[in-house]
């Protein structure tokens, strides 16, 4: 078959294509586009992360347990009940030792640990427990408030003066701390646990920089920032619970014992000396938050069920008091630093209240002050001086209350609706009464001035690639701020 001749239009079209290709080649656009794409592509940063034991568990002879009635097995009825229940439990635990998070009684730390060895972590905790904590004998002066303790020279870690606050005639507070100097370095980023972080805390120690987080799956992760090389990046992870971690409490007078609570109704005590997660309390109700007085390491306050608070005493091992201060779940519990009998709670009923533990009428607290919001209040925290209160609500406001009777209330607009998949924002105080810190949905941390009652600065960094929904300020290391995300990362800001 003869080849068809090209028409004039087709020849003109091919000529245009050839000329365009020559023009593009002369301009070198293709090579320039390749170079530009390579320069703008963000390099993948290898961050520190928790390690999971890759060793396979030995298979049992009969890992599958089939429950059959006596009738189908051709056996006569047994009045004592079905036999073999103990063997079923033992077989299930031999298949997956971590499936025992719902088991009553103590759990060995080794059984719920996800890595190879946690010896370095245990030694670090026990070591800081035995060391004298320099600076804990003296409370730094915040806003003119001092605790009556032994005097002496005291400089906070980071080279910042103890007296950060300067009282103003208007009743506000300004700080010598420059929030613009806070920086995030690449080595201070780590993935401590998988999934949403519900709680983040610092060890209250001057000699150990360690962060503790709890996630939605029941994992509790530790990140020892000062760990040596070869110690798994200083990250250890346990799974002592079967649901979201609702509270973590580490008392400065007993740092080898760490309380954790969970939505599954369990409160466990991690004892580093005994190397166990002991079950200290179990409830049929959900436990939403934990709190401890600064001068009492033996009593634990926790919120359970619909608006109830209970006090558990370690000396008796029992609940010694119960109250019902709210009509709906209590989301946070905090104690005043000036007077440990003063407590504040936030609730889904739309209120944050201040109470006096000495004024208890039957099962009710006597409210000293009630701060109302239009929607659920997710947190309420006293300032370091104890003279101000910050609240965070789903009505897209951050409330700051101050004055003698907390009567000076300001509502500051802030987008607090994080959606379904990210934990709700909770505003916290820094190291004095001058600034409040809260995450935002643009992968930053907003800094709100107590004096100006507005956001004055935003902490941002190219290394912070996720929304910091939960924050914690180191109690003794000024300028050290931890932000935890819905992906399990922890970002550690420090003074630059």
What do these coordinates show?
The radius of gyration is 28 Å and the shape is globular. It has a five-stranded mixed β-sheet with strand order 1-5-32-31-30, with no helix packed on it. Strands 2-13-12-11-10 form a five-stranded antiparallel β-sheet. A hairpin with a 6-residue loop joins β18 and β19 (342-347). The protein is mostly beta strands and 496 residues long. Residues 59-65, 81-98 and 135-162 have low confidence and may be disordered. The chain has helices at residues 8-27, 29-40, 85-95, 119-130, and strands spanning 48-49, 107-108, 165-167, 173-175, 182-191, 197-202, 210-215, 220-224, 235-238, 245-251, 254-262, 266-271, 276-282, 287-291, 299-304, 308-313, 318-323, 330-335, 342-347, 351-361, 364-372, 377-382, 388-393, 397-402, 408-413, 428-429, 435-440, 444-449, 454-459, 468-473, 481-485, 489-495. The chain contains four helices and 32 strands.
